[in-house]
Design a protein that fits this description.
This protein has about 325 residues and is an alpha/beta fold. The protein has 14 helices and 7 strands.
Amino acid sequence: MSDVTDPQGWASQPLLERESEVLAIHRAVDELCGTSRTGPTTRRGGVLTFAGAGGIGKTTLLTEARRHAAERSCTVLFARGGEQEKQVPFHVMRQLIQPTFAAMTEEERRDVLGNWYSIVAPALGLTAAPKGPTAPDPQGVRDGLDWVVTHLTVRSAPVVLVVDDAHWADAESLAWLTAFAARAEELAMLILVACRPNEIPADAASLRALMSRQGTRPHELATLTTSAVARIVRDALGESADDVFCRECWAITGGNPLRGRRVGDEGSRSWAEAPPGQHSAAARPGLRRQGQRAHRPPRTARAVHGPARVGRRRPGYRRPDKHRRKRGGAR
């Protein structure tokens, strides 16, 4: 049983109800490596996508994919979109490519990039950008990236390319990824993409196209069920966690693993301090308080302090008698 003061069940257990997704990942990686349950087979790449709300377990699945791919001796390229960096051109591509090139000598980089060196290297941050107002041609950079990634895939196959939080990826990287995805099946490459569909920007047509393109194997992730949450709670706190307490954990967290980790700390502390035989009843108030904080909407200055009082009072305003200052004695 886990330490009740630091329950890790919520961090690892989203895979409890993701058996089909995990099997799909393992099957795709195995096919990429040219193996199957029946024996050796032709290598097959492709695209897998995972969509769901924040904290639903997408990153956990991608972590499992990276672990299994590394176990099968695949080359893993990983990047994560960032809300603060989505306006930086080719930011995601830099994350994908730079670690591989960092291990190369300058001569090896020039050999891999070939005639595209002067165009692609500055865009990927491998060399300083040339001085002057002229920006690199985005289409030229994308054409160069096609060559670079194809070269790396042939040289270091099989390759697993993973992009998390794609809804925050920059437009240039998404445009390249969407166009290149059609080649994944022909090459020994598996592309895995995860995003929050309700946070895809209106102008990110390329990401929507990637998530729904023909040949993509999409997976829509649902929240955890009451039985899965009950298993997580009992793995962390023991079998003395009754059905009512487990259902309340599910109701407070909404079956969201990330919210469950945040709420679980307070509940587990109350659980650890409770008298024997009274854990569920004693932990419930702390759990509710934490759950209310997790669901509380952001408080704005207007909500806290009310309408700001600026400028002079409106014409004709008179303070109530009980607050009016008395001057020169009673009137």
